[in-house]
């Protein structure tokens, strides 16, 4: 039988014109998300993009699905509510390094722990971009910002190591300037049932131009595996590839802690229970209440 589902074009997925600076890495992420939605032919009426606040937080405005641009650091509780109420929706969250690891870090811990079904995209430019150049949890030590002009004092948080440490069931890393790798990463994350965490190296030419070096590929490795993500040979032809089995948590930690950055699938555990599925299982067993009888209870 022929599908009655309308074909979604890339044009259909375009919404408002982005307001980011020239050459901002958020453009690469936007194009990658739209390309994934198109390739996967996800129905925009059953897809939602949810964000907090930041340059990264503007993402839902530019993708023609349902969207929610909420409060700084609070995308995860909104997304959890949607995942619980509407299991038929595909839920994507776009967050920044400040949004996810400063003000929203508590929600990230519980989102990861609850393992509810969503794709969480952390756009890591190692700076507060929207508020113009403050030290974030991932800013490299010594880098001068408006809040620490003599140079950032502390060692940065390592997002991949952090989420592995709190029990994430899916952890991958990619970059805004590696389009094929980015889309492959989204595809695997989407397939995974649970909280799929994607770290994105995201360029901020305005306030942190030295954070990620897209002109060279000798400072990172691709983690490759037959069930993982392939190397991006078009954009990073001379980057080294390292074989890594994504079921091996010890090795995942080793790669996360290595001074040499790695892009690819660090870890995947399909057996971790999902909060949304557990809750729906319980809810479905509770007998449906008759609204008339509920009213009786108030009249007693
Ligand atoms: C409750 C609250 N506190 C602070 C702010 C100010 N604020 C807006 S965005 C932001 C940080 C943005 O940094 P990040 O999450 O890294 O996003 P980016 O702009 O770099 O994409 C801050 C501190 C706010 N909007 N709301
Ligand atoms: S400040 Fe940085 S992250 Fe924000 S739009 Fe400009 S380049 Fe992009
Ligand atoms: Mg940021």
Summarize the structure.
The protein has 300 residues and is of the alpha/beta class. The protein has helices at residues 25-40, 75-85, 97-103, 105-114, 159-165, 179-191, 249-257, 275-285, 291-299; strands at 47-51, 66-69, 90-96, 118-124, 170-175, 195-201, 220-224, 240-243, 261-268. It is 31% helix and 18% strand.
Can you describe what's shown?
The chain is α/β, with parallel strands linked by helices and 300 residues long. It has helices spanning 25-40, 75-85, 97-103, 105-114, 159-165, 179-191, 249-257, 275-285, 291-299, and strands at 47-51, 66-69, 90-96, 118-124, 170-175, 195-201, 220-224, 240-243, 261-268. Strand 5, helix 6 (179-191) and strand 6 (195-201) form a beta-alpha-beta unit. Helix 3 (97-103) crosses helix 4 (105-114). Bound molecules: thiamine diphosphate, iron/sulfur cluster and magnesium ion (MG). Thiamine diphosphate binds at residues 53-56, 72, 96-99, 103, 123, 125, 127-131, 136.
